[in-house]
Amino acid sequence: MSRPKSISGFPEWLPPQRMIEQRMIDHIRRTFELYGFAPLETRAVEPLDQLLRKGETSKEVYLLRRLQAAEGETDEDTLGLHFDLTVPFARFVLENAGKLHFPFRRYQIQKVWRGERPQEGRYREFLQADIDVVDRDELPFQYEAEMPLVLGDALGGLPLPPVLIHVNNRKVSEGFYRGIGLDDPQAALRAIDKLAKIGPGKVTELLAETAGASDAQAKACLRLAEISSPDASFADQIRALGVTDPLLDEGIDELVRVMEVAAAHSPGLCVADMKIARGLDYYTGTVYEGTLRGFERFGSVLAGGRYDNLASAGADRYPGVGISLGITRILGLLFGAGALTVSRSVPTAVLVALPSEERRAGCDRVAAALRGRGIATEVAPTAAKYGKQIRFAERRGIPFVWFPGAEGEADTVKDIRSGDQVEADPATWSPPAEDLRPAVTAAGG
Amino acid sequence: MSRPKSISGFPEWLPPQRMIEQRMIDHIRRTFELYGFAPLETRAVEPLDQLLRKGETSKEVYLLRRLQAAEGETDEDTLGLHFDLTVPFARFVLENAGKLHFPFRRYQIQKVWRGERPQEGRYREFLQADIDVVDRDELPFQYEAEMPLVLGDALGGLPLPPVLIHVNNRKVSEGFYRGIGLDDPQAALRAIDKLAKIGPGKVTELLAETAGASDAQAKACLRLAEISSPDASFADQIRALGVTDPLLDEGIDELVRVMEVAAAHSPGLCVADMKIARGLDYYTGTVYEGTLRGFERFGSVLAGGRYDNLASAGADRYPGVGISLGITRILGLLFGAGALTVSRSVPTAVLVALPSEERRAGCDRVAAALRGRGIATEVAPTAAKYGKQIRFAERRGIPFVWFPGAEGEADTVKDIRSGDQVEADPATWSPPAEDLRPAVTAAGG
């Protein structure tokens, strides 16, 4: 076999990085569960027709075919890898509605795949963590206020740069656009969504072309998009623009509530930001986009919003609200910046040194006793000189080496960082709590 | 959207089952880490040529193609979904050898995919948990004895039927076949591997056809296959057959050692079983196959062995030993038999009742205080009558409902199973430890 190569867009972490990723997933998952979100994992594939419901991303789908597909197998049942966790979740809710309790709160942490062109240097496989709440027929509004708090808590307990969640409400934008006389608020939304990418000049042109906006209307749209506030004061700024519309008022009230709840729970977590549009058509209320402080130029690491028509079949309607967090995206940014580090490359806290091959059974018993008390332990692979065995531990960052005593003598354990060595009994000795598991820290932190 | 359907071979668990699966994964992972295995996750795809190295499974591969593949994109770089975790691991080791410390112990818990024909009713997507140890050039033997102990500990701590690991050694079979004069021991192995499926009569025919075995030679092969023992006594039974061969002796010594180590650590976990052949050509030493007691007729739930040539490129050789555990397979069996149950369908331990919508902020503070102390908490979705709010908790199996006190009165918390209700402060009250998380138990156990 020739030496294999990495594949562009399919990142793989080395074990130390994977330990950091796992620690992150564990904390996120624990936070989601503290909020009562139940775990869900959907299959990796969906029928192609399900995937194509979101027309705009259809080009990014990976389709599957069996290497030895039988003659005459049709494309009718073509399967594709899911490109997000929202479409599979909506499908799962419709398929299993009779077995679920509503409101249904679930989280889902899974890989997704996008058939991006290789040359674009984007991820083609990446890990997402999603939470959603869906209800039957009607969704109580408070879940729109709860979403950012969950994500704030999930990320706040990790050694990451602080997250800032930009919040807007579709009703604000759409109501405002209607209030100034634009007939196609969706087209205006899509134009404003491009503001960061193409700038106000091009957006003005786009608003004229696609939404039929006059210069004055385009200017008003841009003035709305400029409004942001770390509190509920955005409402006065909007009202100062003198536009009235019932949907606009409703949106302002909702957004004020989201900002008040956030301020009570996590001051500084959210900013009301009228330029957040979210390209996807299916959002109908609050929308979210989060960035990491210091990494704003790399774009958002979480996004989501309120939707009403994603999960519906016939008369059944399951409105919902959700946020997707890009775990691979965050780690890619932070690993790239060297901003995260882990104290060792293995879970092992103790290496049991092997005095001679004959004494392996005794060393295995020491290891079993330590493991039985929750202390990750390995026995040295060979009865090499102790210096070599200590280097084995050092190279991996294993903090403690256990030396079995000679006949009639006590065992000792050595902290190979400090050189401290003490007598120890595997039935009672424990490492300091901070050495029990590998420690993940912000580099330099 | 029409009501979606499940896809044959792609199982999806409901949240209560997913909670059971997660508890199982958590315990397995924790055990692997206690033994010092480092986590690894490889990309879901491999280049087709890598996947085809194991010729026998090539027919089961799912290939990927981008829905909007550009004209002129060749099949040269065709990617397929991995069908096991061994091939990707071998590739990863070769690709990253310079960054790894050897012996390298890793575990990997991931989905794999096989493009089985839909009508066969087999899993096409399933979860595997693998451990492997690889070393550079030479692999110390003791890892072959350690493997079953890790799996025994991983499964032993869960409410599952006990696992029985059948162990053999390729050197025993091959040495024996050579010792009786068969020139193609691999062919004999493949024939014996079919014993359980096709019976001794057909195996005798197969041995004649494919391995050129005489009646006497076939009989000897079958007599070897009949030997099994829960201890090291299999060695005397083999020697009583009167066959001598150096490889056979080496294999017997190794298998005795595996059985002795297992007896010292986990009595009853392993059985030496000479009919275990494992179809795959790449095994060179100890081989394993494990079944759940009471579910033997469904076949093995774990399998693996020692290999010498799986990860090698040019002069670099990384011999290893590993076991794959079929998590989806085990859960499919046990869910099918109704053998596992979980105490509630959500992580939530406490539902905070909502006296009126005006008091939501106070209820949110109670919930935040409980969550801050590690107690999974939800606030009721609406200020319905308390009877309805209690039924909300009951339906989900949430054991406690928290009632915020009226102005100047203490809060109370009610165990809705017993009806016991006590005054409580969210800063100090905790549920009994057994109610903190959903409890997974053997049904009826």
From TrEMBL, chains A, B:
SUPFAM superfamilies: Class II aaRS ABD-related, Class II aaRS and biotin synthetases. It comes from the Bacteria. The keyword ATP-binding applies. GO terms for molecular function: ATP binding; histidine-tRNA ligase activity. Residues 420-445 are annotated as: Disordered. It catalyses: tRNA(His) + L-histidine + ATP = L-histidyl-tRNA(His) + AMP + diphosphate + H(+). PROSITE patterns: AA_TRNA_LIGASE_II. GO terms for biological process: histidyl-tRNA aminoacylation. One of its GO terms (cellular component) is cytoplasm. The keyword Cytoplasm applies. Pfam families: HGTP_anticodon, tRNA-synt_His. L-histidine binds at residues 84-86, 114, 128, 132, 278, 282-283. Keywords: Aminoacyl-tRNA synthetase, ATP-binding, Cytoplasm, Ligase, Nucleotide-binding, Protein biosynthesis. Its EC number is 6.1.1.21. Gene3D superfamilies: Anticodon-binding domain, Bira Bifunctional Protein, Domain 2. Belongs to the class-II aminoacyl-tRNA synthetase family. Homodimer. This is Histidine--tRNA ligase.
